[in-house]
Amino acid sequence: MSTRTVRKRTQYVVALSAVTTLALSACAGATGGGGDTGSTDSGIETAEGTVEERAEQYIDQYFADSVLTKEEQMEELMWFVEAAEPYAGMDVSVLSENIPTHAYESEVLAAVFSDLTGINLTHSLMGEGEVMEIISTEIQTRTSVYDGYVNDTDSIGGHQRGDYIYPISTLLESSPTLPTLDIDDFIGLSFGTGSDGVIYQLPDQQFANLYWFRYDWFSDPDIQQQFEDIYGYPLGVPVNWSAYEDIAVFFSTQVNGDGTIDGEEVFGHMDYGAKHFSLGWRFTDAWLSMAGNGDTVFDPETGERTPNGIPVDEWGIRVENCSPVGSSVERGGDTNAPASVYAVEKYLEWFDYAPPGAQNLNFDESAPVVGEGNVAQQMFWYTVFTRATIDSPAMSDENGDPVWRMAPSPHGAYWQEGHKLGYQDAGSWTFMNHADEEKRDAAWLYAQFATSKTVDLAKSIQGLTFARDTTINSDWFTENAGDYGGLVEFYRSPDRVNWTPTGTNVPDYPSMSAEWWQAIGSAAAGEITAQEAMDQLATKQDEIMERLERAGVHDECGVKLNEPRDAQYWLDQPGAPYPALADEKGTPETVPYDELVAGWFEGNSYLD
Q: Helix axis angle, 51-62 relative to 70-83, nearest 10°?
């Protein structure tokens, strides 16, 4: 571990102790007020002196690592001070889910912003489900609960079609906007942009789901030889699900003759399967596209890259002329087609290679398991766990270096070049049309502060959820990349664009996402087959869209369901849905991790 990383962790010890407390709470917030001296409710000591002197002290204490010079940081901070004058003394509240990045914002950034601007800014934290419920309530009642939200761009389909969002594009033109905001520097800007070209949401943080593995075990010459003797090809990062499955079998049952390393039982896979709402995002977060459902992300008319498949996305929803027309195969969708069913079947089969009881765990219960040290690989691992994995004693060698790495997710048998390879969560600033205009503008100032170049590098060091290109490519992360198990290399790679959030095909994310965990949870519990689960899900999604169409909820790009027809008609058409493959195993393929990373440094995709 680099000495500079140790120095930064020491520098932030006060902030991090408070952040940890916040992250464990269901709902928390930090409020700061104007004034020359004193402390905020957050426990962060405010600076002393004039506003210029306080700004300089905050830079030295919290934002010393920045892509800007200190002079440039001072210019940004003093712009915020001046722009906030009309809103001084105003009580403003924003809400986000309680991940470490937002805990840092709530504890540190909200307090600094409040002290410098005189705006009493409260940044509250709740669970993701609670945030979604409050946003849904606002949409239904058109009554403000908070003045701004960090909301995943998974909801972009509803945001674009509804009349309740006050777009970022409008704020950029009508409200105080930081001259150095540099909108093109945000790597996930397209995720919060509708098919109409309007920017509805501004990225605050992002994290991907990637492949995670024990680099030390995969690099062990004896283990490598054992694997190649059995399977006839090298042990490495699996490019496809066929190789992933072989590796899962090997570590669970064959390594050292009995599935043990150093006398301890190990497992070749980890997942979770409890019938719980968290099972929903286990699948909506691009699992089906990793298997190969949906269409490629290249617009068939323009050839330009889009975040999600066109005309069929990874939820299996077909869109024609921006209107959703069906989820089931009978309506041209892909939700219950062979690729989607295969995705669920493999998910269920691989529990044979996971630790006992994994199928009964939910997301939160399963998250710490790989950090315990007996899992060889995990297909579906969120990079938001990077900080916790770094801090796990079992995940470092005697020098403090990580014994694990993250790499691109392997793809399934139906996958083709141009398909998505995985999911990327993009928590983004979101504002409502019905909000109080002045409070919304004040919250917009805070959103810009929380994503400004002045603070973004320091924030990213804490949360490791990158949103800006300049931060990813900063000297700091170049010097410290080795501490993060491949995270920096992935975000600098050309392959990053293959990981995207849910897109605009989904017209009602809250209602439709709730159906996933119930259908697939029944399959995980052994109550129904994978095919029956996906048939149920496709039917439910069609029913929701039918209600939206009947109610005339969306004027623009509203649902226009296709009439059902024989499934074979759609299976015979080009693109998704695809007919069943005769061979779903395929030829296993791996790539050496170090070779993969070397290719990234040269600007090459590992798929080339």
A: 130
Residue 9, sorted as left (phi over 0), alpha (psi -120 to 50) or beta, turns out to be: alpha
* pLDDT tens, position by position, 278-297: 999 999 999 999 999 999 98
Alpha helices in 260-337 (DSSP H): 278-284, 287-291
The structure's pTM equals 0.90
Span 235-260, average pLDDT = 98
Both tokens of residue 339? 């690729």
Q: Where are the domains of the chain?
A: 51-206+426-493, 208-275+355-423
Sequence-ordered alpha helix ranges (H) in 250-403: 278-284, 287-291, 338-349, 363-366, 386-390
Residue range 534-557: mean pLDDT, rounded: 94
- Decide if 362 contacts 272 (C-beta within 8 A): yes
CATH fold of the domain at 51-206+426-493: D-Maltodextrin-Binding Protein; domain 2 (3.40.190)
Interatomic CA distance for residues 173 and 163, integer angstroms: 19
290/416 Cα distance (integer angstroms): 10
* Other residues' Cβ atoms within 10 Å of the Cβ of residue 568: 10
> CA angle at residue 29 from 488 to 47, to 5 degrees?
80
Q: CA neighbours within 13 Å on the CB side: how many for 482?
A: 8
Going by the DSSP 8-state scheme, the letter that residue 99 receives in this structure is S
